[in-house]
Specification:
Number of helices: 3
Order of helices and strands: HEEHEEHEE
Structural class: alpha/beta
Helix content: 25-40%
Number of strands: 6
Largest sheet: 2 strands, antiparallel
Distance between the termini: 71 Å
Oligomer: single chain
Radius of gyration: 19 Å
Strand order of the largest sheet: 1-2
Strand content: 15-25%
């Protein structure tokens, strides 16, 4: 099979695409390494969990991360999933707004 630079570039472009739900991580297969696991796409697997950092949480102990936390929770509205809080100092301003 001859070397096809344009073909390789096309594949890389499809893998790097984050706008089209049928490209990017949807083109990558994933299967747990335990008996009985079924193959899925990386897109499906990664969609089970979101990080508060995916929505802008800083985790620096200074920035109010409440909006990012709420956005992460809201992202699962109607479909379920898990919200991940990575190591850090998540800060939420709990003062009354009155």
């Amino acid at each position: 099979m001859p070397f096809c630079l344009s073909c390789i570039n096309q594949v890389l472009s499809r893998l790097a695409n984050t706008d089209d739900p049928l490209k990017g991580d949807a083109l990558i297969g994933f299967k747990q390494t335990v008996f009985g696991a079924v193959p899925r796409t990386a897109h499906d697997k990664l969609g089970e969990v979101v990080s508060v950092k995916d929505f802008g949480a800083k985790g620096d102990g200074q920035t109010d991360d409440a909006a990012a936390i709420q956005a992460a929770v809201n992202s699962f509205c109607g479909r379920g999933g898990a919200v991940f809080f990575p190591a850090g100092n998540i800060h939420r301003d709990c003062r009354d707004s009155d």
